[in-house]
Structures are given as structure tokens and as C-alpha cells.
Specification:
By secondary structure, the chain is mostly beta strands. It contains 1 helix and 9 strands, in the order ββββββαβββ.
Length: about 110
């Protein structure tokens, strides 16, 4: 089980024992897709373009938009706010994948 840690706007980490799946895939030399889903929740995905300066520009964000179950509402809302902010950087630090959206890192 993956423990999700999201940093909120005020710098406090929100933790959930829910299993959350995050998939990052390079579709072409400049196109990336990031997909995220919690158990029984909405599928969320972002389409990213890699610019010449190796910066990422989020061009699209989609979610299935159904009402999530009450027990995952809080973690799903945090994930949605994070991804809607626009992913600007993805880096790997050993076994850890760092994703930056707006001013927040996951």
C-alpha cells in the first residue's frame, strides 16, 4: 500500500493510507501523460508538452467527474487540486518520483 503525502497550500502534509496509483508515460519525444486514480474514485489525467528548455507545460487536465465515495473524498479532492494547478516538473530521486504542480510538490 502506498501512503499518499500531499503538501497543502499552508505547508501541512495530508496523509492517507489509501492506495493511489500514479502513472507517468512519455508518449512521444515531447508529449507526456500523467494519470492518477484512488480506489473506487475518479480517473484523472494530464497531458503535458515538453518545451525546448526541458520544462513541462500542462496543456490539458481531465477527470471522470463522478461523485467519489465519502471515505476517499478528501484525498481525491487534494489530488484534483494538485493536478489542476498544472504540472511543471517531474524528477526522479532514487526510488522517489517528485512531481511539482504550481507551488506544491508531491
Amino acid at each position: 500500500m502506498l501512503k499518499l503525502k500531499l503538501q497543502t497550500k499552508i505547508g501541512i502534509y495530508f496523509e492517507s493510507p489509501l492506495s493511489v496509483k500514479l502513472i507517468v508515460k512519455k508518449m512521444s519525444p515531447t508529449d507526456w501523460i500523467v494519470a492518477c486514480m484512488g480506489p473506487r474514485g475518479n480517473m484523472m489525467h494530464c497531458l503535458l508538452k515538453e518545451e525546448s528548455s526541458n520544462k513541462l507545460n500542462q496543456v490539458k487536465f481531465n477527470t471522470t467527474g463522478k461523485e467519489p465515495p465519502a471515505d476517499i473524498m478528501e484525498v481525491e479532492t487534494e489530488m484534483m487540486i494538485f493536478l489542476e494547478a498544472g504540472i511543471t516538473d517531474i524528477t526522479r530521486e532514487g526510488n522517489i518520483l517528485r512531481v511539482k504542480a504550481g507551488e506544491r510538490k508531491w
